[in-house]
Design goal:
With about 220 residues, this protein is an alpha+beta fold. It contains nine helices and seven strands, in the order αααβββββαααααββα. Strands 1, 2, 3, 4 and 5 form a five-stranded antiparallel sheet that branches. A hairpin with a 5-residue loop joins strand 3 and strand 4. Helix 6 crosses helix 7. The radius of gyration is 19 Å and the shape is elongated.
C-alpha cells in the first residue's frame, strides 16, 4: 500500500499528479518509486540503460551531455512544473542525456512499460505525455537555433536574463554552469562577463554574479 506521506507529496508537488485520478496516483506509487537526490548526484548517466518516465516532485534536475574531454552542454532544467510535470528524456532504452540533481529534491520514477499501460486508463497522463513530447521538441529546436545562430556573448546575456527576474538579482549559475548552458568554455564565458561588467550590466564578485541592468542586457542581444 502507498505510504500516506508519499501520497501527500505527489498530490501537491506536480501538476499532472495533482490532476490525475486518485486511483492513478495510488497506482503510480505502487508501480513506481520516489528517489531522493542531492545536488550534483547523478541519477542516470548519458546513454545509460533507462526506459523510464520521470515526474519531478521538488528540487531541481539538470539534463546535460558531455564530451570525452569533459566539455558539457546543459540541455534543460526539469522541475515539477516543467513540460506539464513529465520528463521523457529517459523514456527510450537508453537515457538521451545525463540526469543529475541541480538542487536536492525528489523525483517519482516509473518504468516505461508501466506508463504505457497506465495512459490507456487515465486521459490526464496521456495528455501529459503528448504535452511533454511537444514541449521537449520545441525547447530542443530553440536550443539548436540559439547555439547555431547566436553569438556567445548573446547566449551569455540571455542565460543571465533567464536566471534572474529583476535588477539586483544574484545569478544562481556558476561560470562553469554558464559555459555548459551556452555551449562554450569557461574561459570564453569569463571574457564575456568581464565585458558585460565593463558596460555596467552586471557586477562580478567572489563566486557570484549580480545583474545590475536587465534593460542593458536585453539591448545587447
Amino acid at each position: 500500500m502507498p505510504h500516506q506521506g508519499d501520497m501527500e507529496v505527489i498530490e501537491t508537488a506536480n501538476p499532472v499528479l495533482r490532476d490525475c485520478a486518485a486511483e492513478t496516483r495510488a497506482a503510480l506509487l505502487e508501480r513506481g518509486r520516489i528517489e531522493r537526490f542531492d545536488a550534483g548526484a547523478v541519477i542516470y548517466g548519458d546513454g545509460e540503460r533507462a526506459g523510464v518516465v520521470l515526474f519531478p516532485l521538488n528540487g531541481g534536475l539538470q539534463m546535460g551531455k558531455a564530451t570525452t574531454r569533459g566539455r558539457r552542454q546543459i540541455i534543460c532544467h526539469p522541475q515539477a512544473e516543467s513540460c506539464g510535470g513529465v520528463c521523457m528524456l529517459a523514456f527510450g532504452p537508453h537515457a538521451l542525456a545525463e540526469v543529475r540533481g541541480l538542487d536536492a529534491g525528489e523525483v517519482l520514477i516509473l518504468d516505461r512499460t508501466e506508463f504505457e499501460q497506465m495512459i490507456h486508463d487515465d486521459r490526464v497522463l496521456c495528455r501529459a505525455a503528448w504535452h511533454s513530447a511537444a514541449s521537449c521538441m520545441s525547447h530542443l529546436s530553440g536550443l539548436v537555433a540559439q547555439l547555431s545562430f547566436n553569438k556567445v556573448s548573446e547566449r551569455v546575456a540571455l542565460a543571465l536574463l533567464q536566471d534572474t527576474e529583476k535588477d539586483g538579482d544574484l545569478v544562481r549559475l556558476t561560470q562553469a554552469d554558464l559555459a555548459a548552458e551556452v555551449g562554450t568554455t569557461r574561459e570564453v564565458v569569463a571574457r564575456c562577463l568581464a565585458t558585460l561588467q565593463a558596460d555596467g550590466y552586471i557586477r562580478l564578485g567572489r563566486a557570484r554574479i549580480t545583474v545590475l541592468n536587465r534593460e542593458g542586457l536585453e539591448r545587447s542581444l
